Amino acid sequence: MSDVSRRLALSLLGVGAVGALGASWPRMSGADIPGRGSDSLSVAILGNAQDAESRVNLVKAFSAANPDITVRIQAIQGADWGDFFAKILTMVAAGTSPDVVLVATEGAQLFAERLAEPLDMYVQRDQQEIQNYFDDVHPSLIEAFMYQGSLFQLPMDFNSANMYMNTGAFEKAGLTLPGAHWTHDDFYNSLTAMKRTGGKQFVPYYWTNRLFGGVVPWLYANDTSFLKETRSTGGSWFWDRFYPNEATRSMRSGGYQWLEPNAEDPRVAESFEFLRTLVAEGLGTSPAQGGGNELVAQFASGLIGTTPAGGYWVEGLQEAGMAEDAFDVQFFPKWRTQRHQFGAAGYAIMKTSTRKDEAWEWIKFCATKEAMELAMPLPTTTPARRSMVNEALYTGKGPARWKVFYDTLDQFPTSGPIPAPPQQAAVESALIKNVLGAVTGSAANIQPAMSTLQRDLELAMRRN
Asked: Structure pTM?
């Protein structure tokens, strides 16, 4: 495990961060965390002390319901999920592993394959207590956390790549906000109109170079991906028992699989060419690398016309001073399909935990509506429970079409998770490395870039 941890840390943090890796060892190993070694259930989350503090009421409610279980929240800082996962691996190698870890889609299969305990036995044993949760959660979110026929996490929240729109920019260009089934051609025409009226600093379309909200939503809409997507067998034990009357029952599986590169699919090149055209014509930015948090202020200031993001943006825009009617959202534009990309997060029980039963009680409690309302009082994400995505959550903050967030799953049930195999860190690095060259040069660069991406992905997929 120490070798795995070291290699993953290097791949995620970059060679230049090796010095910082050593400097931050106490935080990564958990050695500086108060209460280390105490008789409590440790729950690791990505964040800082304020993020841990925000869960105080959740912990109090859990303790009231489970007075014999003491919970300690470990907030572990990281630049992103990949950074966080590398630190968890280092803690495991150091023998200071938490009992429970909040894991996003990006790391779900990494944890399922190496680190996490299946929840199969627990959900079957406690079906009567937890069925209410499944009745309120879309099966697409559940399937995203199944791996080789077993369930490893219960999604707490999710975000789809929807399209945020600056209403003022649309009005200035003489445009009405698009309908639900607008196309990628409609999108292109809207950008062209906004460019004519937006001014020098205005950007019609801003996008980032990463798995979420980068090139992948366009690949999904074009009925393809940079990895070949298949489904594993198994899972009937779960679907037959917990979703027997679900309309999409026949399409559910034992979990997603991404086993081979698919970068040389002509539709992948076609999707890259569409983005290259946007960049070349000044309709879209050259993609920025990172999470795009700096976009909130720019979007709120009216400098950006459209950008892909999920429900997590609503609270940020409101805090940046953007009026609820100054922006809106819509489904991602249709191409060959209108399939969407989403990412989710949920708690995983670590195999190394000696408190697995207590860990399950934490997960089971956190899946209740009471707990999820305590954990997500503001629109900083999209709750996994359908009943919580309601008008009360968005009143006074917007957007008018807040129903889009959950309707993405209900209206487009083939929507799927971010392509994230166990080698996700290396796979994402290969993608990010090749996107910029493909979309910032001439059209002649697309095919060579796709060949290079295919080669890099083949190497990434071979990694253990």
From this structure: 0.90
